[in-house]
Design goal:
The protein has 8 helices and 13 strands. The protein has 376 residues and is of the alpha/beta class. An 8-stranded mixed beta sheet has the order 12-3-6-4-5-2-1-13. Strands 9-8-7-11-10 form a 5-stranded antiparallel beta sheet, with no helix packed on it. A hairpin with an 8-residue loop joins β1 and β2. The longest helix has 28 residues. The chain is globular and about 70 Å long. About 2% of the residues have low confidence.
Length: 376
Protein backbone atom coordinates (compact mmCIF):
# COMPACT_ATOMS: atom_id res chain seq x y z
CA UNK A 1 0.00 0.00 0.00
CA UNK A 2 1.48 3.33 -1.06
CA UNK A 3 1.85 5.51 2.03
CA UNK A 4 0.06 8.38 0.26
CA UNK A 5 -3.14 6.33 0.07
CA UNK A 6 -3.11 5.04 3.61
CA UNK A 7 -4.36 8.21 5.29
CA UNK A 8 -7.45 8.62 3.07
CA UNK A 9 -8.32 4.91 3.32
CA UNK A 10 -8.01 4.94 7.11
CA UNK A 11 -10.04 8.15 7.42
CA UNK A 12 -12.87 6.64 5.35
CA UNK A 13 -12.73 3.50 7.46
CA UNK A 14 -12.88 5.44 10.73
CA UNK A 15 -15.91 7.36 9.49
CA UNK A 16 -17.74 4.09 9.08
CA UNK A 17 -17.71 3.81 5.31
CA UNK A 18 -17.81 0.21 4.07
CA UNK A 19 -17.16 -1.37 7.44
CA UNK A 20 -18.76 -4.12 9.49
CA UNK A 21 -17.40 -2.65 12.73
CA UNK A 22 -18.75 -0.10 15.19
CA UNK A 23 -16.73 2.57 17.00
CA UNK A 24 -17.46 4.33 20.29
CA UNK A 25 -15.21 6.75 22.18
CA UNK A 26 -14.32 6.28 25.85
CA UNK A 27 -11.64 7.43 28.26
CA UNK A 28 -9.98 5.04 30.69
CA UNK A 29 -8.88 6.21 34.12
CA UNK A 30 -5.16 5.57 34.54
CA UNK A 31 -4.36 4.66 38.15
CA UNK A 32 -2.40 7.40 39.92
CA UNK A 33 -2.28 9.65 36.85
CA UNK A 34 -4.30 12.83 36.18
CA UNK A 35 -4.87 12.31 32.46
CA UNK A 36 -7.38 9.72 31.20
CA UNK A 37 -6.45 7.46 28.30
CA UNK A 38 -8.70 8.12 25.32
CA UNK A 39 -9.63 5.03 23.31
CA UNK A 40 -12.16 3.89 20.75
CA UNK A 41 -13.98 0.68 21.56
CA UNK A 42 -14.21 -1.29 18.31
CA UNK A 43 -16.69 -4.15 18.03
CA UNK A 44 -18.25 -6.22 15.21
CA UNK A 45 -21.70 -4.98 14.26
CA UNK A 46 -22.95 -8.57 14.53
CA UNK A 47 -21.99 -8.38 18.24
CA UNK A 48 -20.19 -11.73 18.25
CA UNK A 49 -17.25 -12.19 20.63
CA UNK A 50 -15.80 -15.37 19.14
CA UNK A 51 -12.47 -13.79 18.24
CA UNK A 52 -11.34 -14.01 21.89
CA UNK A 53 -12.00 -16.11 24.99
CA UNK A 54 -14.10 -14.94 27.93
CA UNK A 55 -11.61 -16.39 30.40
CA UNK A 56 -9.41 -14.47 32.82
CA UNK A 57 -5.78 -15.36 33.54
CA UNK A 58 -3.15 -13.49 35.57
CA UNK A 59 -1.22 -11.07 33.35
CA UNK A 60 2.58 -11.07 33.67
CA UNK A 61 3.78 -9.40 30.50
CA UNK A 62 2.91 -7.18 27.57
CA UNK A 63 3.85 -8.19 24.02
CA UNK A 64 4.28 -5.48 21.36
CA UNK A 65 3.56 -6.44 17.73
CA UNK A 66 3.13 -4.68 14.41
CA UNK A 67 0.36 -5.63 12.01
CA UNK A 68 2.18 -5.61 8.63
CA UNK A 69 -0.76 -3.73 7.14
CA UNK A 70 -3.04 -0.71 7.41
CA UNK A 71 -5.89 -0.07 9.80
CA UNK A 72 -8.77 -1.42 7.72
CA UNK A 73 -7.23 -4.86 7.27
CA UNK A 74 -5.74 -4.82 10.77
CA UNK A 75 -9.04 -4.43 12.62
CA UNK A 76 -10.95 -6.77 10.35
CA UNK A 77 -8.43 -9.59 10.62
CA UNK A 78 -8.19 -9.22 14.41
CA UNK A 79 -11.98 -9.46 14.85
CA UNK A 80 -12.46 -12.43 12.49
CA UNK A 81 -15.41 -14.58 13.57
CA UNK A 82 -14.55 -17.89 15.32
CA UNK A 83 -10.81 -17.49 14.61
CA UNK A 84 -9.54 -16.53 18.09
CA UNK A 85 -6.44 -14.66 16.94
CA UNK A 86 -6.58 -11.15 18.31
CA UNK A 87 -5.24 -8.59 20.78
CA UNK A 88 -7.01 -6.15 23.10
CA UNK A 89 -5.44 -3.03 21.54
CA UNK A 90 -4.44 -1.70 18.13
CA UNK A 91 -2.69 1.67 17.79
CA UNK A 92 -3.31 3.43 14.47
CA UNK A 93 -0.77 5.59 12.69
CA UNK A 94 -2.46 8.76 13.96
CA UNK A 95 -2.12 7.51 17.55
CA UNK A 96 -5.75 6.44 18.01
CA UNK A 97 -6.02 3.46 20.35
CA UNK A 98 -8.65 0.88 19.40
CA UNK A 99 -9.84 -1.54 22.08
CA UNK A 100 -11.07 -4.77 20.49
CA UNK A 101 -11.86 -6.59 23.72
CA UNK A 102 -11.32 -6.25 27.47
CA UNK A 103 -7.64 -6.69 28.32
CA UNK A 104 -8.46 -9.14 31.13
CA UNK A 105 -9.54 -11.74 28.54
CA UNK A 106 -7.26 -13.42 26.02
CA UNK A 107 -6.83 -14.67 22.50
CA UNK A 108 -3.99 -16.39 20.68
CA UNK A 109 -1.55 -13.77 19.40
CA UNK A 110 1.89 -15.41 19.27
CA UNK A 111 1.49 -18.34 16.87
CA UNK A 112 2.83 -21.85 16.47
CA UNK A 113 6.40 -22.44 17.57
CA UNK A 114 6.16 -19.87 20.36
CA UNK A 115 8.66 -20.37 23.17
CA UNK A 116 6.71 -21.41 26.24
CA UNK A 117 3.67 -22.31 24.13
CA UNK A 118 1.26 -20.13 22.18
CA UNK A 119 -1.65 -20.77 24.53
CA UNK A 120 0.27 -20.42 27.79
CA UNK A 121 2.12 -17.26 26.80
CA UNK A 122 -0.90 -15.66 25.10
CA UNK A 123 -2.88 -16.08 28.32
CA UNK A 124 -0.10 -14.47 30.38
CA UNK A 125 0.61 -11.68 27.91
CA UNK A 126 -1.43 -8.67 26.80
CA UNK A 127 -0.90 -8.05 23.09
CA UNK A 128 -0.62 -4.59 21.54
CA UNK A 129 -0.52 -4.20 17.75
CA UNK A 130 0.96 -1.11 16.09
CA UNK A 131 -0.42 -0.48 12.61
CA UNK A 132 2.74 -0.62 10.50
CA UNK A 133 3.98 -2.49 7.41
CA UNK A 134 7.20 -3.78 8.96
CA UNK A 135 10.13 -4.64 6.73
CA UNK A 136 10.34 -3.16 3.22
CA UNK A 137 12.01 -4.60 0.12
CA UNK A 138 14.20 -2.31 -2.02
CA UNK A 139 13.34 -2.35 -5.72
CA UNK A 140 15.22 0.23 -7.78
CA UNK A 141 14.48 3.70 -6.43
CA UNK A 142 11.52 2.69 -4.29
CA UNK A 143 10.60 0.34 -1.44
CA UNK A 144 7.85 -2.28 -1.51
CA UNK A 145 5.93 -3.99 1.28
CA UNK A 146 6.38 -7.66 2.04
CA UNK A 147 3.02 -8.31 0.32
CA UNK A 148 4.54 -7.31 -3.02
CA UNK A 149 5.31 -9.87 -5.77
CA UNK A 150 4.50 -12.88 -3.56
CA UNK A 151 3.91 -16.18 -5.32
CA UNK A 152 0.42 -17.49 -4.53
CA UNK A 153 -0.79 -21.08 -4.33
CA UNK A 154 -2.16 -20.96 -7.90
CA UNK A 155 1.28 -19.99 -9.23
CA UNK A 156 0.42 -16.35 -9.93
CA UNK A 157 2.04 -13.43 -8.17
CA UNK A 158 0.55 -10.65 -6.10
CA UNK A 159 0.67 -7.17 -7.60
CA UNK A 160 3.50 -4.73 -7.02
CA UNK A 161 2.83 -3.08 -3.66
CA UNK A 162 4.96 0.05 -3.59
CA UNK A 163 5.26 1.78 -0.22
CA UNK A 164 7.47 4.83 -0.86
CA UNK A 165 10.43 6.24 -2.75
CA UNK A 166 13.89 5.76 -1.32
CA UNK A 167 14.21 9.55 -1.30
CA UNK A 168 11.37 9.74 1.27
CA UNK A 169 13.70 8.96 4.15
CA UNK A 170 11.28 10.07 6.84
CA UNK A 171 9.00 7.14 6.04
CA UNK A 172 11.42 4.36 6.87
CA UNK A 173 14.43 3.40 8.97
CA UNK A 174 17.52 2.00 7.26
CA UNK A 175 19.60 -0.18 9.56
CA UNK A 176 23.37 -0.30 9.23
CA UNK A 177 23.21 -4.07 9.63
CA UNK A 178 20.32 -6.26 8.41
CA UNK A 179 17.91 -7.45 11.07
CA UNK A 180 16.68 -10.91 10.16
CA UNK A 181 17.84 -10.34 6.55
CA UNK A 182 16.26 -6.90 6.04
CA UNK A 183 17.72 -3.36 6.27
CA UNK A 184 14.61 -1.28 5.58
CA UNK A 185 11.66 -0.97 7.97
CA UNK A 186 8.63 1.33 7.86
CA UNK A 187 8.81 4.10 10.45
CA UNK A 188 6.46 4.31 13.41
CA UNK A 189 4.84 7.71 13.97
CA UNK A 190 5.41 10.02 16.91
CA UNK A 191 1.70 9.75 17.70
CA UNK A 192 2.05 5.97 17.95
CA UNK A 193 4.99 6.25 20.34
CA UNK A 194 3.04 8.65 22.55
CA UNK A 195 -0.06 6.45 22.63
CA UNK A 196 1.98 3.30 23.20
CA UNK A 197 3.73 4.87 26.20
CA UNK A 198 0.42 5.97 27.70
CA UNK A 199 -1.14 2.55 27.09
CA UNK A 200 1.85 0.78 28.66
CA UNK A 201 1.58 3.05 31.71
CA UNK A 202 -2.10 2.14 32.01
CA UNK A 203 -1.64 -1.62 31.62
CA UNK A 204 1.37 -1.97 33.92
CA UNK A 205 -0.52 -0.13 36.66
CA UNK A 206 -3.82 -1.90 36.03
CA UNK A 207 -2.31 -5.41 36.20
CA UNK A 208 0.71 -4.71 38.40
CA UNK A 209 3.07 -5.75 35.61
CA UNK A 210 6.69 -4.74 36.27
CA UNK A 211 7.92 -1.83 34.12
CA UNK A 212 10.90 -3.90 33.01
CA UNK A 213 12.35 -4.50 29.56
CA UNK A 214 14.70 -7.19 28.33
CA UNK A 215 18.31 -5.97 28.36
CA UNK A 216 19.60 -4.46 25.14
CA UNK A 217 21.92 -7.43 24.55
CA UNK A 218 18.96 -9.79 24.02
CA UNK A 219 16.12 -7.36 23.31
CA UNK A 220 15.93 -8.34 19.62
CA UNK A 221 16.61 -12.03 20.09
CA UNK A 222 14.38 -15.06 20.43
CA UNK A 223 15.33 -16.19 23.90
CA UNK A 224 14.19 -18.72 26.49
CA UNK A 225 14.48 -15.95 29.06
CA UNK A 226 11.23 -14.47 27.78
CA UNK A 227 9.22 -17.49 28.98
CA UNK A 228 9.40 -16.55 32.66
CA UNK A 229 10.09 -12.84 32.12
CA UNK A 230 7.65 -10.40 33.69
CA UNK A 231 7.53 -7.04 31.94
CA UNK A 232 7.38 -5.62 28.40
CA UNK A 233 8.51 -7.73 25.43
CA UNK A 234 7.96 -8.02 21.68
CA UNK A 235 6.96 -10.79 19.29
CA UNK A 236 10.54 -11.44 18.13
CA UNK A 237 11.45 -12.63 21.62
CA UNK A 238 9.11 -15.61 21.22
CA UNK A 239 9.71 -16.62 17.59
CA UNK A 240 12.71 -16.60 15.25
CA UNK A 241 10.55 -16.13 12.15
CA UNK A 242 9.02 -12.81 13.25
CA UNK A 243 10.17 -9.22 12.70
CA UNK A 244 8.03 -7.33 15.22
CA UNK A 245 9.61 -5.52 16.84
CA UNK A 246 13.35 -5.22 16.34
CA UNK A 247 15.97 -2.46 16.34
CA UNK A 248 14.14 -0.24 13.79
CA UNK A 249 12.07 1.08 16.70
CA UNK A 250 12.81 3.80 19.24
CA UNK A 251 12.98 1.55 22.27
CA UNK A 252 14.79 4.17 24.35
CA UNK A 253 11.94 6.64 23.90
CA UNK A 254 9.39 4.01 24.96
CA UNK A 255 11.46 2.86 27.92
CA UNK A 256 12.07 6.41 29.15
CA UNK A 257 8.42 7.43 28.78
CA UNK A 258 7.07 4.28 30.43
CA UNK A 259 9.46 4.45 33.37
CA UNK A 260 9.17 8.21 33.95
CA UNK A 261 7.54 9.38 37.17
CA UNK A 262 5.13 11.42 35.04
CA UNK A 263 4.50 11.54 31.32
CA UNK A 264 2.98 14.55 29.59
CA UNK A 265 1.61 13.71 26.16
CA UNK A 266 1.60 16.48 23.57
CA UNK A 267 -0.99 16.55 20.82
CA UNK A 268 1.23 14.40 18.63
CA UNK A 269 -1.40 13.37 16.10
CA UNK A 270 -2.33 16.96 15.20
CA UNK A 271 1.32 17.97 14.93
CA UNK A 272 2.10 14.99 12.75
CA UNK A 273 -0.80 15.70 10.40
CA UNK A 274 0.28 19.34 10.20
CA UNK A 275 3.82 18.27 9.35
CA UNK A 276 2.52 16.00 6.59
CA UNK A 277 0.39 18.83 5.17
CA UNK A 278 3.35 21.19 5.24
CA UNK A 279 5.65 18.71 3.48
CA UNK A 280 3.01 18.01 0.83
CA UNK A 281 2.50 21.76 0.27
CA UNK A 282 6.26 22.28 0.03
CA UNK A 283 6.59 19.51 -2.55
CA UNK A 284 3.68 20.89 -4.62
CA UNK A 285 5.20 24.38 -4.56
CA UNK A 286 8.59 23.07 -5.66
CA UNK A 287 7.10 21.12 -8.58
CA UNK A 288 5.34 24.20 -9.95
CA UNK A 289 8.38 26.38 -9.30
CA UNK A 290 10.72 24.03 -11.17
CA UNK A 291 8.27 23.81 -14.08
CA UNK A 292 8.22 27.60 -14.40
CA UNK A 293 12.00 27.81 -14.14
CA UNK A 294 12.58 25.09 -16.73
CA UNK A 295 10.18 26.55 -19.29
CA UNK A 296 10.59 30.25 -18.45
CA UNK A 297 6.82 30.30 -18.35
CA UNK A 298 4.96 33.56 -17.84
CA UNK A 299 1.55 32.11 -18.54
CA UNK A 300 -1.11 33.54 -16.19
CA UNK A 301 -2.31 30.03 -15.27
CA UNK A 302 1.20 28.95 -14.20
CA UNK A 303 1.79 32.13 -12.20
CA UNK A 304 -1.61 31.80 -10.53
CA UNK A 305 -0.85 28.17 -9.65
CA UNK A 306 2.51 29.21 -8.18
CA UNK A 307 0.87 31.95 -6.09
CA UNK A 308 -1.80 29.55 -4.82
CA UNK A 309 0.81 26.93 -3.94
CA UNK A 310 2.88 29.54 -2.13
CA UNK A 311 -0.12 30.69 -0.09
CA UNK A 312 -0.87 27.09 0.90
CA UNK A 313 2.77 26.54 1.84
CA UNK A 314 2.75 29.60 4.09
CA UNK A 315 -0.59 28.63 5.66
CA UNK A 316 0.53 25.08 6.46
CA UNK A 317 3.82 26.37 7.87
CA UNK A 318 2.03 28.80 10.18
CA UNK A 319 -0.38 26.11 11.35
CA UNK A 320 2.50 23.75 12.11
CA UNK A 321 4.31 26.42 14.09
CA UNK A 322 1.10 27.29 15.98
CA UNK A 323 0.59 23.68 17.06
CA UNK A 324 4.21 23.26 18.07
CA UNK A 325 4.11 26.47 20.11
CA UNK A 326 0.81 25.55 21.69
CA UNK A 327 1.93 21.95 22.37
CA UNK A 328 -1.06 21.12 24.52
CA UNK A 329 -0.25 18.68 27.29
CA UNK A 330 -3.83 17.75 28.30
CA UNK A 331 -2.84 17.38 31.93
CA UNK A 332 -6.24 17.31 33.58
CA UNK A 333 -9.43 15.28 33.30
CA UNK A 334 -11.47 18.26 32.09
CA UNK A 335 -9.91 18.01 28.61
CA UNK A 336 -11.39 14.58 28.03
CA UNK A 337 -14.20 14.66 25.46
CA UNK A 338 -15.59 11.21 26.25
CA UNK A 339 -16.91 9.52 29.40
CA UNK A 340 -14.25 8.31 31.83
CA UNK A 341 -14.97 4.67 32.53
CA UNK A 342 -13.34 1.31 33.21
CA UNK A 343 -13.00 -1.57 30.74
CA UNK A 344 -15.65 -3.43 32.77
CA UNK A 345 -18.12 -0.61 32.12
CA UNK A 346 -17.31 -0.64 28.39
CA UNK A 347 -18.25 -4.33 28.25
CA UNK A 348 -21.57 -3.55 29.95
CA UNK A 349 -22.32 -0.61 27.66
CA UNK A 350 -21.40 -2.54 24.51
CA UNK A 351 -22.76 -6.03 25.21
CA UNK A 352 -21.89 -8.88 22.88
CA UNK A 353 -23.57 -12.17 22.08
CA UNK A 354 -21.76 -15.08 23.70
CA UNK A 355 -20.74 -17.82 21.31
CA UNK A 356 -22.75 -21.02 21.85
CA UNK A 357 -19.67 -23.12 21.17
CA UNK A 358 -16.11 -21.99 21.74
CA UNK A 359 -13.59 -23.93 19.70
CA UNK A 360 -10.49 -25.03 21.59
CA UNK A 361 -7.36 -24.94 19.46
CA UNK A 362 -5.00 -26.34 22.09
CA UNK A 363 -1.57 -25.08 23.02
CA UNK A 364 -0.42 -24.36 19.45
CA UNK A 365 -3.48 -22.31 18.57
CA UNK A 366 -5.25 -22.15 15.20
CA UNK A 367 -3.46 -22.51 11.87
CA UNK A 368 -2.23 -19.23 10.44
CA UNK A 369 -4.77 -17.92 7.98
CA UNK A 370 -3.50 -16.90 4.51
CA UNK A 371 -3.26 -13.16 4.05
CA UNK A 372 -6.12 -11.54 2.15
CA UNK A 373 -4.20 -9.69 -0.58
CA UNK A 374 -7.35 -7.87 -1.68
CA UNK A 375 -7.05 -5.83 1.52
CA UNK A 376 -3.77 -4.11 0.56
Amino acid sequence: MNHQKISSIENAFRLGQRTELTFEKFSLKVPNEPTPLEIIACRPKEKYNSYYYLAEHPKEKIVIHHTAGHLQGDLRSLTRKDYHVSVPFVIARDGTIYQLHHSKYWSYHLGKGTLGGNGTQSKKGIGIELSNYGYLKPKGQHLETYHSRIKKQDGSFTRIDKYCERAETGLYVKLDKPYRKYNYYASFTEAQYTSLIRLLRYLTKQYNIPVDFLPDSIRYQTTQKVVNFKGITSHVNFRKDKFDIGPAFDWEKVIAGTKAATFSATDSAKIERAESAYLAAEKAFQIIQVKIWDTNSELPADLAALKSAEQKLVATHLELQRLKTQSLSNNDDSNSTSPIVSEDIIDKQIPSINSRSVQEFGEDGPDEMPFDYDMI
